[in-house]
Amino acid sequence: MVSAPGRVNLIGEHIDYHGLPVLPMALRRSIRIHFQARADCQIRVSSGAYGHREFAWTPGLTPVARGDWENYLRAAAQAIAGKWGVMNGIDATIASDLPPAAGLSSSSALIVAMTLALLRANHRAASFEELMEILPDGEQFVGTRGGGMDHAASLASREGCASLIEFVPLAVHHIPIPADWAFLVADSLQIAEKSGAVRERYNAVRTAGTEALRQTGFASYAEAIQGRTEEELGDLAAAKHLSPAFLHVVTEAFRVRHAVEAMHEDDSALFGRLLLASHASLRDRLEISCPALDRLVDAAMASGALGARLTGGGFGGCAVVFCHRGDLSKVHDGLVERFYSGNPAHILHAEPGPGAVNS
Ligand code: NG1
Q1: Domain formed by 2-166, architecture
Q2: How far apart are CA 350 and CA 316, in angstroms?
Q3: Which amino acids bring their CB within 6 angstroms of ligand 1?
Q4: What angle do CA 3, 5, 7 make, to 5 degrees?
Q5: Which fold has domain 181-349?
Q6: pLDDT digits (tens, 9 = 90+) for 19-38
Q7: DSSP designation for 115
Q8: How far apart are CA 138 and CA 51, in angstroms?
Q9: Structural domain spans, the chain
Q10: In whole angstroms, what is the distance from residue 293 CA to residue 303 CA?
């Protein structure tokens, strides 16, 4: 059996694909795959509610119909094949307590779990670094090519900790979350469909950041930030008429740094302000929020949260809400009343769990 958890990103949004550190945590909810090795190349998977899928693992797999979950299974097989070649298939069953399409990275968790199941069935050991070489590209097979945050968090997180993920070079630092801190994940009920228009907007945001960097002449965002203050970077953006995406990326990088310090120092007020500043930057500079997410953040603050922000790719999806543990019920109930007209079904208490390789 293998198990890969979902994640919620606490802070560091739309900067992982620019190679900058991010701070997600894995959840105690995961996708589990029970598997048995086969002696041929068939991959046969059943998943209660989603039915049965079967295909032959051959070189050069192509996607099936858009939106079919078989693509995630194929993505894992194809990612492995690209590095190690095709192997024997498996008979597998999938179980999950991770809500799908809720901004908790269930799709990345499925790709991670399937990749680990196929590798283990074939007695192929793979290091965290090797997995991180193939997994983000595997996701591209399904249609998106984000950064590596979701896979790194699902693989390498530690119980009770947030994961500070650095990409250049790849490293994960486990930051203990103060015992009194609590997080909720609340769904805006605005669906951010990963295919189609949202995918194009996601890519446009990425391109805007890359184009602004090109105009500065720096080789990377890390180089642009190195040794400079936020003010100096603001002056640079104004002088070169850079797109607002530049300021989002560099200020978000500073916010991640400060958020880690706030966590180390148990400074919940600062951590809350950083979440709000991140949301404002995503809303005003990247323009990836929506009225429902903005109202959700306002409702969280009116209910006694210390901070809240949209989490994940944006254009809908979820907000992460931060409060003192003692205020959890008050904030939860306030949100149910203010945002959900009494229906508590769309809020989850997010507790930091272990990643797939640490469980
Ligand atoms: P979501 O939309 O939450 O799956 C996406 C990317 C992340 C990151 C965030 C924005 C994938 C699998 N995930 O997350 O890498 O770029 O957007 O911070 O593409």
Answers
A1: 2-Layer Sandwich (3.30)
A2: 19
A3: 13-14, 16-17, 103, 105, 108, 139, 144, 146-147, 149-150, 312-313
A4: 170
A5: Alpha-Beta Plaits (3.30.70)
A6: 999 999 999 999 999 999 99
A7: H
A8: 23
A9: 2-166, 181-349
A10: 15
Ligand 1 atom having least distance to the Cα of 22 = 18
Tell me the catalytic residues: 150
Judge whether 14 and 206 are in contact, CB under 8 Å: yes
Q: Answer whether 0.85 is exceeded by the pTM.
A: yes
Closest CA to 4 of 163, 95, 110: 110
Name residue 95's beta-bridge partners.
32
Mutate to test the pocket of ligand 1, among 11, 104, 141, 149 (most ligand atoms within 8 A of CB): 149
* Token output for 6: 């979902």
Side chain identity at 150, as an amino acid letter? D
Tell me if 340 sits within 8 A of 306, measured CB to CB.
no
Would you tell me how many other CB atoms lie within 10 Å of the CB of residue 80?
23
Of 74-83, 130-139, 170-179, 281-290, the poorest mean pLDDT is in 130-139
Q: Say if strands 161-167 and 51-56 run parallel, antiparallel, or are unpaired.
A: unpaired
% of the chain exceeding 90 in pLDDT: 87
